[in-house]
Amino acid sequence: MQYQTTLRDAIAFEGAGLHTGAPARVRVLPAPAGHGLRFRLNDAVEFPARGDYVVETVRATVLGCGEHRVSTVEHLLSALLGCGVDNALIAVDGPEIPVADGSAKVFADAVEAVGLATLHEPRIRWIPTEPRVFRDGDKLLIVAPASSFRVRMTVDYPAPIGAQYVEAEIAPESYVREVAPNRTFGFLHEVEALVRRGLAQGGTLENAVVFGPDGPLTPLRDPNEPARHKILDLVGDFALLGAYPQCEVIAIKSGHKLHCTAVRELRRHGDGESTAVSATS
Ligand SMILES: [Zn+2]
After folding, report:
1. Helix or strand or coil: residue 78?
2. Geometric angle at alpha carbon 135, from 146 and 71, rounded to 5°
3. Are 77 and 37 in contact (CB under 8 A)?
4. How far apart are CA 245 and CA 272, in angstroms?
5. Per the confidence metrics, is the pTM higher than 0.85?
6. Order of strands, edge to edge, in the sheet holding 37-41?
7. Given 75, 229, 256, 259, the catalytic residue
8. How many Å lie between the centroid of ligand 1 and the Cα of residue 255?
């Protein structure tokens, strides 16, 4: 039997968001069993971290409730799910989660530093009952039953990134080592276009990998850092299932839009969300 967890103590982050460049303050607070991951925005509204609250998926996953919005939730949610945090209240003052170093490392390190408290309720898992396939043009996502949460990611970008394939087991130890440190990325020619559209206002060479025609402008943390970052993003989006995923995800060129469409569909379909006895009992 695996039990639910929460943080042993509150953790906090401050800084500018990647897309808006606006400052924000985030506190992640311990919460009781059954609470799940929930957002409180500007001390005004509170809602569960679930697919129903996704309001935008262009370049980042944006959640909203009423007139309140919070952008770029995926890296923080990825760190919480990846580190095995079932219950927490995420209190945000500002329009966007701080970008930190463009990865989930700062968030995962903070979770590891305070540690997890075990609660006396079984973990609530989301388990698919049959394989499901989601497509959007040449993007593909397959979600299938499995004994744990695993992701296989294929990306295929223009040079110099090219095609990359990475698979990862999403369990705290491997997540912290193989997924969390990989940074968001873009092409030099895209960065200008993003800035023109009012995005990437907080982007610098310290919080994103920028690829020029001949390669990355700063050293990579892993040869497959782009594909690993896409796994990081996928884990964050799958946190919006509202329960701990127990499934294998095969993703080809997928992004926030397809992830969030799948999460909403899977929740609507009624597959899963159940308290299950762990295979590792
Ligand atoms: Zn990302």
Report:
1. helix
2. 85
3. yes
4. 9
5. yes
6. 11-16, 23-30, 88-93, 37-41, 45-48
7. 256
8. 9
Pair of tokens at residue 63: 């959640």
Q: Are residues 181 and 221 in contact, defined by beta-carbon separation less than 8 angstroms?
A: yes
Active site residue 256: yes
The residue assigned the tokens 């610098």 is 204
Residues facing 133 on adjacent strands: 142
Is residue 24 a contact partner of residue 14, using CB atoms and an 8 Å limit?
Answer: yes
Query: What 3-state DSSP class applies to 93?
Result: strand
Token pair 């007139």: residue: 67
Q: How many angstroms separate the alpha carbon of residue 99 from the centre of ligand 1? A: 9
204 alpha carbon to ligand 1 midpoint, in Å? 15
Angle at 255 between CA 251 and CA 260, to 5 degrees: 95
Q: What letter does residue 49 receive in the DSSP assignment?
A: S
Residue 272's pLDDT is 59
Separation CA 281–CA 279 (nearest Å): 6
Q: How far is the CA of 23 from the centre of ligand 1 (A)?
A: 18
Residues 53 and 34: their CA atoms lie apart, in Å, by 19
Residue 43's identity, in one-letter code, is D
User: For residue 154, how far is its CA from the centre of ligand 1 (angstroms)?
Assistant: 15
* Model confidence pLDDT, tens digit, residues 222-256: 999 999 999 999 999 999 999 999 999 999 999 99
Distance 62 CA to ligand 1 centre (A): 12
